[in-house]
């Protein structure tokens, strides 16, 4: 599914609101902060943290198995194309819906927001009939590949890299 410009703008506005709240609350000194303000500050700082069951535990088993096969297919295509630069044991396969609980929850608000922004950009390539994505996360946590099988059988891959506290798409391709 392609994300509409309105939805994309709404997501970015929400992230900007959270970040501006964090910036405002960080400029308040702890000495003058009431317990209520301290509670609000802590919630703003950790506002990107989500809690839910893993996708494999909530999805229909047949659906999950089919999706997992598409994710394995994506991994195999990456291996065949980038065999010298891609060692499967260095990458963790994560269902797209689980990236928050398996990765983003461990990041600062700023880093999580930067990753979310780039992953939203990468998912703009979704089309009707495409399968759910997975994320291949490198063990150093500075590289990720968002991949999914397209409706035509090709695999879409967005190669992401962390640069400082920011994330960027370095390449998008269909293989």
Key phrases:
5-stranded antiparallel β-sheet, alpha+beta, 6 helices, about 45% helix, about 180 residues
Topology diagram in text:
Layout: H1 5-26, H2 35-45, H3 55-58, H4 61-81, E1 91-95, H5 99-102, H6 109-122, E2 134-138, E3 143-149, E4 155-163, E5 166-174
Antiparallel strand pairs: 1-2, 2-3, 3-4, 4-5
Helix pairs in contact: 1-2, 1-6
What does it look like?
With 175 residues, the protein is α+β, with helices and mostly antiparallel strands. The protein is 43% helix and 20% strand. The protein contains 6 helices and 5 strands, in the order H-H-H-H-E-H-H-E-E-E-E. A 5-stranded antiparallel β-sheet has the order 1-2-3-4-5, sandwiched between helices. Helix 1 packs across helix 2 (35-45) and helix 1 packs antiparallel against helix 6 (109-122). It starts with a helix and ends with a strand.
